Amino acid sequence: MMELIIEFAYTSSVNVTESNARRLFMAADTLNIVKLVQICCNFFEKRLCSDNCIGIWQFTKTYHAPELHLKAFHYVLSHFEEVAFGEEFLQLSARDVSDIIRRDNLTVRKEAAVFEAIVRWITHEPQEREGYTDLLLSEVRLSMMPTEYIQSHVLSNKLVTDNLRCQAMVSEVIKCKDRILGRPRLPSAILLAIGGLNGIRDLNNVIEAFDVRVNHWMNITEPSEPLRAYHGAAYLGGYVYCVGGCDQVFIATNNVRRFDLSTRTWQEVAPMYYHRGCVSVTVLNGCIYAMGGYDGHISLRSAEFYQPETNQWLEIAPMCERRSDASCTTLNGKIYICGGYDGSEHLQKAECYNPETNQWTLISPMSSRRSGVGVIAYNNRVYAVGGFDGTDHLRTAEVYNPHTNTWHNVSSMMTPRHSFGIEVVEDRLFVVGGFSTSTSNVEYYDSETNEWSQACDMDVDRSALSCCVLSSLPNMTDYTIPRDS
């Protein structure tokens, strides 16, 4: 280690490896070599995974690396379902397990995962750990579990049946479940619904945030933001970008604005080359892509992408078809765009963009013509939902398999709609608002059951809105329903 440190003193470079990283970090910390400590911290941070995050969290308690310590702990919380099945989790103390599972920002799709994790931890060393059962069970949000699961898995578990305090705790939850709302965990992601139309021509600037764990919308509108509809939205690098669309006099714009989620302020960034209303927007490889749209005269074939680092738009190859009011998504390093309107007909056609070759390729057409369609990547497939076929507002949905270049139908939505928001949040596909008549209705699709279910309506009826999903926010509580209310 001294040899590496002396070499670093002379050359300002060092070869950090898996085998020497921890010892080098400890030595550099002891000798207060701040730059070398930071190099080691960067090395650990890049390699954080479910197998090592607890180890990094534990050893940074002893040494002065507060940022790495917090990032490791955040990784534990945000990847808990994988972490809880690793070897490191079994070596934690009861206090550390309690500190993890009591957190609001522990990310679990189902609270059952927390119960199963503490059972695994206790049964690893039952004689030493059974005495902590009631302490740890009290941190599980039992009231957020289905009653059937509590009765079939919790009440029947030997750790619970052998502990009178645990039995009383679970029985009380079952007795009060219909009357007392439990404290939900924070969601891993927030769905934003931005702008749109109330009715036919009344634009708005309303922004609502959907807390999926509480099934409730929260208004976070900034009054200074201009009215906007038929725009695209994207979340990238801690900012929400609103791209193109129509302004308050219904003229297509090339304007792009971004919302800083930490300061909740807007600023303009570089405009696009083309004015694009009814634009299709997605994110790929750290860039925002904008395709097609209506410039006030014609539906466009052109496409371009934005690099945040340079604040610059660059053109790419034009699409095979002119499209406005289409929708697009990113899957496996490619962009898929489907449907839309070419100026004379509503389109069935779909195509795919490969950024490595800068080429668009037509893929199999959808089974229905769809303008104002919602397109999203979900479960390694491309979903095309709703839209307008020239005659009817559609409820139907179909799925594209890129491996077979084929489409097949899935269950239809409950409400026909076009020009709506679509996103995936916590393994469910949400559709938001839209037009058959302008609606605040929200529903979601679960691919495991092939069923649609109602979610909480937005506060505002709107169509021609855009949605995006925020994840890994340090200030997630600013965009969720307060847990203490």
Mean pLDDT: 94
Structure classification:
alpha+beta
CATH C-level class of the largest domain is Mainly Beta
Briefly note the CATH topology name of the largest domain.
Neuraminidase
- Give the DSSP E fraction (strand runs of 2 or more residues): 25-35%
Count of discrete domains: 2
The CA-CA distance between the termini, in Å, is: 53 Å
Number of helices: 14
Biggest sheet details: 4 strands, antiparallel
Q: Give the overall shape.
A: globular
Spatial arrangement of strands, main beta sheet: 3-2-1-24
Q: Spans of 5+ residues with little confidence (pLDDT < 50)?
A: none
Helix content: 10-25%
Radius of gyration: 26 Å
| CATH architecture annotation name of the largest domain | 6 Propeller
**Any idea what the CATH superfamily of the largest domain is called?**
Kelch-type beta propeller
Count of distinct strands: 24
Describe this structure in words.
There is one protein chain. The N and C termini lie far apart (about 55 Å). The protein has 2 domains: about 1-175, Serine Threonine Protein Phosphatase 5, Tetratricopeptide repeat, CATH 1.25.40; about 190-480, Kelch-type beta propeller (Neuraminidase, 6 Propeller), CATH 2.120.10.80. It is built from 14 helices and 24 strands. The radius of gyration is 26 Å and the shape is globular. The strands form 6 sheets. It has a 4-stranded antiparallel sheet, with no helix packed on it. Strands 4-5-6-7 form a 4-stranded antiparallel sheet, with no helix packed on it. The protein is an alpha+beta fold and about 475 residues long. Pfam families: BACK (PF07707), BTB (PF00651), Kelch_1 (PF01344), Kelch_KLHDC2_KLHL20_DRC7 (PF24681). Keywords: Kelch repeat, Repeat. It comes from Parambassis ranga.
